Structure prediction request, 96 residues.
Amino acid sequence: MIMRRIKGFMLKRMHGMITCREFEDFVLSYLDDTLPPNQRKRFEWHMKICRECRDYLAAYQRTIELGQSILAADDKPLPDDVPEDLVQAILDARGR
Prediction:
């Protein structure tokens, strides 16, 4: 955690660079392809130098894939190890 703060402090000082916190804020827009070109370039530049944010993006994408596969398999029973609060969150999001 402290290393991430130090990295964020350093990145904030680099001209045109976004911080890890800003990276997290832009993830959904990046994946939806609604991030303006200049911000997208800064997002991708950050991703090239920050392993933690690359890992975060990969986990975020995997979560979306898993959610979509669960929604696509409505007729199949869920595995026993799927937490009930996760199921409820997906159902709530689906209802929106």
In short: Residues 51-72 form the longest helix (22 residues). Residues 2-94 form one domain. The mean pLDDT is 82. The chain has one domain: 2-94.
